[in-house]
Design brief:
The chain is built from 5 helices and no strands. By secondary structure, the chain is mainly alpha-helical.
């Protein structure tokens, strides 16, 4: 199973990025004393973490979706093949990159 749960990661990553942008865009409370240290809002570190992990998850899920869309015929050929030799011949038939055929072979084991 090469592309397991990318479809779950996509909406969750969108939700994390939306949360992070919403929290970071809210204005801070005004401080009455200009010389007092400004308090850090407790949501800001969480929002930065959500922005980082949500952005990375968004890139991974979009990458998986792009690979599936681009090499759909090859992945169908591998899924429908009955033997390992037939699965290897799919890579030659559809002219896929070697990293994808190697990744498919490793995920089958």
């Amino acid at each position: 199973m090469l592309f397991g749960l990318y479809w779950v990661g996509f909406p969750l990553s969108l939700l994390a990025v939306w949360y992070a942008v919403t929290v970071l865009r809210t204005p801070a409370e005004p401080v009455s004393d200009p010389f007092a240290p400004r308090p850090v809002r407790p949501q800001v570190p969480a929002a930065l973490g959500a922005l980082l992990t949500g952005g990375l998850a968004l890139l991974v899920s979009l990458g998986a979706f792009t690979i599936q869309f681009t090499y759909h015929d090859y992945l169908d050929c591998r899924a429908d093949s009955a033997t390992q030799e037939a699965a290897r011949s799919c890579a030659q038939e559809y002219d896929v990159p070697t990293w994808l055929s190697n990744l498919s072979e490793v995920s089958d084991q």
